[in-house]
Amino acid sequence: ATPTLVIKDKHSGRSITLQGAPDGNVLLSAIDWLA
């Protein structure tokens, strides 16, 4: 099975789903996108 990571912003209700094993840069980009 492919790992899936869901990052949710509780204030805006937005979320992003990342498939696979993201590296640090991908995680930071996802968090910046939600901000």
Describe the structure.
The chain is α+β, with helices and mostly antiparallel strands and 35 residues long. The chain has one domain (4-34). 31% of the residues lie in helices and 29% in strands. It contains one helix and two strands; from the N terminus they run ββα. The chain has one helix spanning 24-34; strands at 4-8, 15-19. It has a two-stranded antiparallel sheet with strand order 1-2. The longest helix is centred in the last third of the chain and has 11 residues, at 24-34.
Keywords:
two-stranded antiparallel sheet; 1 helix; 2 strands; flat
Order of helices and strands: EEH
> Major β-sheet, in short?
2 strands, antiparallel
Helix content: 25-40%
What low-confidence regions span 5 or more consecutive residues with pLDDT below 50?
A: none
Large-scale geometry: flat
**What is the average of the pLDDT values?**
90
Helix and strand composition category = alpha+beta
Spatial strand sequence of the major β-sheet: 1-2
List how many beta strands DSSP finds: 2
Q: Kindly provide the radius of gyration, computed on alpha-carbon positions and rounded to a whole number of angstroms.
A: 10 Å
Give the N-terminus to C-terminus distance in angstroms: 30 Å
Q: What's the oligomerization state?
A: single chain
Task: Give the total of domains.
Answer: 1
The number of distinct helices, counting runs of at least 4 residues, comes to 1
